[in-house]
Structure of Precorrin-6y C5,15-methyltransferase (Decarboxylating) subunit CbiE:
Amino acid sequence: MGELTVIGYSGADLGADALAVLASATLVVGGARHLAAVPVPEGARTIQLGALEPALDALGRHDGNAVVLASGDPGFFGIVRKLRAGGLEVARVIPAVSSIAAAFAAVRLDWDDAAVVSAHGGGISGSTRSLRRAVNACLAHPKVAVLTGPRATPRDLAKALLAAGLDAGDRVVWIAERLGTDQERVSSYDLAEAAKVRAEEPNVALLLAPVPARESSGWLAGARAGGITANDRSLVPLPDEEFEHRDGQITKMETRTLAVSLLGPKFGRLIWDLGAGSGSVGIECARRGAAVLAVERDAESCERIGRNAARHGGTGLYICKGDAADHAARMPDPDAVFIGGGGMDVLRTVLDRRAPRLVATFASLERAGSVLPLLAGHGYKAEGILQQASRFAPLPDGTHRLAAQNPVFLVWGELL
């Protein structure tokens, strides 16, 4: 029985090892441009990749040596995973330079601290979801490489980021087209320019915020590990004293911790923080890797949110000044919404947007009680609690008493 080898191709001549393996193959599978670019042995059967299932079936029934040709590094967002998932045993992988590595090399940048996301997805709905995740990643992190696709192009990324509220100069967009070929082109644009570019395929996009370069990304490659930056304590809740706020108008740590847990922020997700106040909830979400749109109508509070975000590394938080209901009607679709202020009009607008998950806090029993049936009527599974915490407070003799905080109603719903 023969062996299955996956060979990566980046446009350069294949090495001696890859050529020897290819010469022994009696079945070669790959895209049209790969099959045309390498010396397929005379008499070998070839299958041009389109739908993967016929190729998997043919590879599974083949008795001789087989080769699958793939772009760049086949083990990096590549075909190796799909072959194994299809029940095939891969004997060898001979990689080439990945398109992401080649793109960063072309622009002379290090990339161990970059987020790398794939905007490929199955079908139209999958591609839409993948594009949204890629856009949210670009909002949350200053250095992102995107593996693009026909339904998630650099142009689509730029248009979506502008629609989310970024200015043209907030990102430099490097588009690397046809890497490794004689038609290779690597060009930089601002967001407005990139939104007009129809890039040749295949291509990758690098989206870079104009921030100073760091000496090191630390000990862990990639922008985030499980939604956490490698060198911080981003899962540890910040005490109230860490936030600048006005007259105690802040979502207290006990309530905030539960609210953030219910919102489920992580890298690739977009959170709305409506009636943001001090910005404490949104900042905690941004610390966990999410992109956050914080809406606040008061100008002084907006400035305060900016200072709090700068203090705690909230690079993925964007402040939107104005009425929460107005902004909620036109902002990009969220993965979760926190409502800390704004009243029932804001809640109704959010419900009309069909947010997958929402969390709201209220001070009055009447308002909290009216929310549950409203959520249920819009297709949400709704729950709520009264949270009442007492903190230890020191007494003059060194002992402690319990200092009660104001009770808070916390209501949340998940779209069924």
About this structure: Confidence is low (pLDDT under 50) at residues 225-231.
